[in-house]
Every structure is written in C-alpha cells, then in structure tokens.
Amino acid sequence: MHPILADRLRLQLYLLAWGLVGALLGLLVRVLIGTPWIDALVFGLPLGLVAAPVSLSAWYLCRAMPLSRTGPVQVAVSAVGAALVTASLWAVAGRGWWQLLVQSGFDLPGGAESPLFTLLVGFGALAYLLAVTVQYVIQAFEESAAAARRALESQVAQREAELSAIRAQVDPHFLFNSLNSISGLIVPDPPRARLMCQRLADFLRDSLSFGSAAMIPVAREIALAGQYLGVEEVRFGERLRVDATVSPESAGLVVPALILQPLVENAVRHGVATLVDGGKIEIAARRAGDLTVLVVENPRDPDGSRRGTGFGLDIVRRRLAAAYGNRAAVIVEPSPAFFRVTITLPAEEQRT
Amino acid sequence: MTEGERVMRAVIVDDEEPARLAMRQDLEAIGQVEVVAECANGFEAVKVVGEMRPDVLLLDVQMPKLDGFEVLELVGADVPVVFVTAYDEFALRAFEVHAVDYLLKPFARERLAAALDRVRARQAGLGVTPAVLRASARPAGSPLERVVIRDGAQVHVVAVDRIDYVEAQDDYVAFRTGGRTLLKEQTLGDLEAQLDGRRFVRIHRSYVLNIERLARVELYAKDSRVAVLADGTKLPVSRAGYQRLQQLL
To answer: Does A303 sit within 8 Å of B25, measured CB to CB?
Structure first.
C-alpha cells in the first residue's frame, strides 16, 4: 500500500499541499495572464487537486530506484523524464479545462492556450520533481531510522551475550562437587582438603574479579584455566592430567577474560570424566601472524552418551562475535576419541 | 536404630575418590551399615551387584562408560538404588525410575540416614515391580541413544544405530548387531516405545527393524511380504507393519 494512502492524516495533508499548489497556479495565472482572482482560482484549484493522485506515482519511482543503489545520472534522467511526461499529460488536461471554462462564460482570455500550455508543463514538471525530492528525503529519513534501530538491536544482542557469558563463567555444579570433595577429604586427608580449599579460593578470587568486558594477557588466561583444572585434579586424582603451553610471543597478547573457561569445563565434563582411566587435557596458545590462536583438546569416550548441548561453545562464539564481529572464529574438530576447539582472534597487545 | 535390624550391606559407586571417601565416612558414622564394595564406574557396579547382592546401591549419576541411570536399568530389579549427585535436574527422572531416594552433593549425614531408612521401609514390603523399573528407565521425551545389555557379569553397550533389527523371543528381545545376537529381558513393545520412531519401525509382531538396513520389500504371497536387509537377511512383514513402513518411507 502506498504510504500516503495508508494514513488518513497524511492523505489530508497531502491534498492540502496540492490545494496550495493549485492556489499558487491560480496566482500565476492571475499575474502572468491577467485574469480576475475568482476565475484564476476556479481554474487553478481543481487542476492542482487533479495533480495529487498523479504525483503519487513519484513514490513508485523512488522505491524502484533507491539512491543507495542507483547512479545519479539514471535517477536524474528517470525523474526528469517522468516529470515531463506527467506534466505534459497534466497540461493537456489543463488546456481542456481552460477551454471548457472559456465556453462556460468565465472571464478567461480565449487566445492564451499556447503560453498556458508551456506554463503548465514547466510548473507541473517542477512540482513533480519536488514530489520526487520529498519522497527521497522521506526515504533517507526512514533508512537512517532503520539503521539506528539495527544498531540498537545489535547492542542489545551484545549485552545479552555478555550477560549470559557472566552467568556461564563458573558452572555451579563445579562448586557443589568441589565442596563434596572437600567434605570427603577433611577427616581422612586434611592436607588434601586444605589444598583444595586454597585452589578453589584462588580460582574464585581471580575469576570473580573480572567484568565481562575485561581483557587479560594470554598467559594470565591460561593460568586461570590451570587454576580451575587444579581444583578438578584434586577431585579426579590421577585421571586428570593437564599440559598447557604458551608460546613466548603470544604470552602478552590480550584476550577476553575467561574465554577458555567453558571450553576447559567441557573438556573435563564431556571428555576426561567420561573415561575410566581419564586422560590429558592439552591447552596451547600461540601467535600466527596477526592472529592469536588458542587451542583446547581433550580425549573422550567414543561410545559416550554425554555429548553436551553445545551451550558452552555457543557462549564462546557469542562473546567473540560481540567483541570482534567476524574477525574471530571458533573451529570445532570432533573425532570419535578426541575433541578439539580452536579459537582465533585478532592479535592485540595490551594497551598501556 | 531399632533392635533386631540387621546390618545393611552397601555398595558405593562414584568415579571420584573424595566423594567415595565422604560416603564411606558417613555410612560408618551412621552405623548398622557395612560397605561391601566401592566402584569407580558403572561396569564395576553391575558386576559387583551380581556377585554380592547388596542391600543398597549408593549411585552417582555422571560416570564413565555407564551412567547411573543405565546402571539402575541393568540392576534395578535386584537392589534398591539411592542416587547421589551434584545435579538437581536429574531428580524428576530418578523418581520416574523408582529410585528410593535422591541425595544432592554435598549432603548432610542425617539426610543419608533418612535415605537408608527409606531403603529399609522399601525392603519391608513397599516394593516396586521390576517390570515398571525397566520400562521407565530412560529420560522422558528423548529417544534411546544406546542400549545397555547385561550378559552375566559382562555389560554390552550398543549404540542404537548399530542395531540391525530386534526380534521378540518369549520374555526377551534379541538384538541383532553386525552378526552378533544379544538377549535382554524386555518386551518388544517397551523397547519400541523407547526407540526413535523415525529410525526404527515395527514391521511385524515379533520384529522391529532399523530402517537404514532395509534394502527392499518383496511380495512373497498374496498379502504377505518380506523385508530384505542389506546383508540379505529376510524378515516377515505383516500387513500393519507394511503400512507403518510405507508411512515412514
């Protein structure tokens, strides 16, 4: 539906505008041809209102040729062409209307048709071009409003991603299981119980100190993952082994804090914990050109039923997308007995 | 503790050593309980239950190989089960499969004592039938992804996509998987309800077929058809079974 026809108020304003154009035409006729006021307006007003439905076609022209995707020459040629054709038709109607009024006894000079025709074509074409311009202005307003809305929406999505990232930072079951381990160790093995308390406290103190937007050096991020796994080592004993390597040139690059946390949680829960004899979780950080590369790899039971829901991976993807757009990637390589996740993101030095 | 109560024989099943330590200490403190075995995974648990016939199984849910629910499915008829886990989201499922109780880690000693009392009450006569246990030992809503089968002390875990077809044999179902046959005490109707209806179809009163193994259906006599599998095996197809097969294809 045409936007002007869709709204009653808009339609009224539109007709009023063309009424004013008609009045302006009457004024021109009065001044240029020298007719009395009443007769000039009787001629001009209806002709102006007739132009109203005709110039609605400007909207279709503008919609078919949005400025963003059409060359200026094409727009100009089309608009002028459409304006001349429309104005000529209108001028023919205007001349007929003039002759009819002359025959009906209105005080209009009978020999003025020729300059009148020229006047109508010029005036009509200008009015039509004005309508096109107004349409383009409205279109531009609408586009910028839509762009603002899209920007707002993506901001909201980013905030949401950040919020869920905060919620996912530490799996509460990790705390329950750790507390249960401590309660089991207190009497038979007090030193191990204390060790676990200390590791748990260290990990919580460090991980809870970061906001969701914090950036930390790679070496620190890997150390955090190591602290988490240190707690899990007490729980799983010899079943859990960890091998973390940070290449020297990547140690100082910064990454979003706790970006690895969902991955190491998965590596324990869906990996090592599914194996009777456990296995080794390998974490690596390196620099490849202008990319920071982080890898978490773990063995898993090929026949395991605990495959996970992809929630943790989704959190990582959304956090990276919020921070880097498509300049970061998460590559998942599952095989029956292993699971590897690689994160690549732009290599950034810490800002000082 | 009332007089005349005999000592309860318990088996602890948990893949984490500290968790087993916690449980053992609490059981010793409560008294009248003897820990006859500790198991670090589901396979051991199934084996130990068969050998020792304990009075209660204290069972973790998330373990390697067999999870707690699969262990219950295999031994639930033989021994009352108390689940012990850090996850509260399994509670509903635990009661659906008629676990006696459900403890959240870390638990209070009194809570464990109450669970043991419930086990005694259950043994005193408020039992559930094994058939109910087996039929319901699966997550509500999601189809079975693997089948666990007990074969003496041995346990087989078979992913459902490796099953060729299942045949009803009296009180058992026979799983055919790559030339092997595994028997499980279950009705074909129960099993059919648990399997994914888009991958398995009941082609006959006595047969459920993995649709991916089907090569073609041949007319054998008037109103009588046989399903020919990729390996050449022929299975009878009933009229109702043929309709179900057509619907699926």
So the answer is: no
